[in-house]
Amino acid sequence: MQLTQMLHSAADTRPNHLATVDGDRRKSWAELRKRVGRLAGALQTLGVKAGDRVAILALNSDRYTEYMFAVWWAGGAVVPMNTRWSAAENVYSLNDSQATILFVDRHFAPMVSSFRDQAETVSTIIHLEEEEVPEGMLSYEQLVTDHAPCTDAGRSGEDLAGLFYTGGTTGFPKGVMVPQRALWYNNIALAGMAGFTSDSIYQHTAPMFHMADLACSGAVMMAGGTHVYVPSFEPVSTLNAIEDNQVTHVLLVPTMLGMVLQHPEFDVAKLRSMTHYLYGASPMPEGLLRQAMALLPDVKFAQAYGQTEMAPLVSILNPADHVLEGEKAKQIRSAGRPAWGCDVKIIDEEGQPVPRGTVGEIAARSPGNMLGYWQQEEQTAATLVNGWVHTGDGAYQDEDGFLYIVDRMKDMIVSGGENVFSAEVESAISTHPDVAAVAVVGIPSEKWGESVHAIVIPKDGVTPDEQSIIDHCKDQIAGYKCPGSIDFRTDPFPLSGAGKVLKRELRAPYWEGQERSVS
């Protein structure tokens, strides 16, 4: 269960096969391994030792893949940073992870320059571009050119592969400690279940810091296929890249798919090379799924459900289960069956299994389990219980083993495939001078699945302005976490016997008439 084994295997057995395509840059598997080894040598020269954290803040590129494998080769652990986070959130994750080296591209170099003095442990910043390197940063290409490969550190099994930051219930992001074996297992399982082979051409369209893309990246890596990169999602460039590179496998979260299909320049002919379409991160609206399947009748659709704590696979809805008519048509509303090697049970509040058809919390265990949350023993103990990850998602399992998600136990909103923990948003809003109390909930959104909605109790004698509260948040948290709408009230929030705000009561009016209380 050594992640660099995939790279060595592909380079040994398919040395001249195309490994990466990024614009005009094309690398074979042999060339890719050579570059990764040299970059690993540079990292060790810069002081990277076993388990050291090395971060990256960048858009998608072939160098992102090289970074990941070079860090593992050198013995370190990756810290992929969310490109939509604010500077304050990025500083927090760097300091919390105690990252010593940071890779950055031209898009984020100005942001890094603005906060580099606040990143207490970062001693070296490496600029990913070939253009002029900003003062105080090292040249990526120069490091690759100037250094010889080091010996592969051979990290594997329980060794830390990376810290993957996700929203926190305390108002701060928390680092999920993912071991080598967790990613290795997910690569094997997804490669087999989603049809990746050595002839597959996978396009990185979803952000590479996201676990969903990492799983697909590992699957095509395990199979020895080809990686194609677009810097970030944009409907027209995504379509053109699929056509130009004859891409076979694509991962688009439902929001992205909707934007592609509804774009004035959408042309189904550009997708003729596609054989597999994967979706996940948030549920697919049934109408959108039916539209896509009608437009692409020869494409195999597969949905993956999971979370960072499982690195990420929990279940998969296979292509064969994407049935639109007859008794089995209900399955497309499900999150599929448990993935290969993953055990799933539905439990009550005492942790006991409930009968089939009864709603409870999804608990899962597999070789993909996290080690825990970085320096968060209490949160680790609450989530990882006797080897089972408590997902926080409410669901039932039918007699055929399909999972149907109907609610969310954790105070979390999923908007456009991004997880937003209400506590983070409430923390930001609470510092506004006109706010006495605030509760944040997810409400239905046709475009995003769910949108962030705040309910505010103003301080006596003031009338807050909605836009001023939203602008106040933007200085502290990522834009996608900021409320899209705000309601004001004077009545106290409904409370439980323990004094907790009853979010379900606050959410209920917005979800009235819908089959479930999450999207």
From TrEMBL:
Alphabetized UniProt keyword annotations: Ligase
Protein name in the entry: Long-chain fatty acid--CoA ligase
Domain AMP-dependent synthetase/ligase residue range list: 9-374
Keyword Ligase: yes
Keyword Ligase attributed: yes
AMP-binding enzyme C-terminal domain location: 424-500
Source superkingdom: Bacteria
Protein species of origin: Parasphingorhabdus litoris
Gene3D superfamilies: 3.30.300.30, N-terminal domain of ligase-like (3.40.50.12780)
Pfam families per UniProt: AMP-binding, AMP-binding_C
A GO molecular-function descriptor: ligase activity
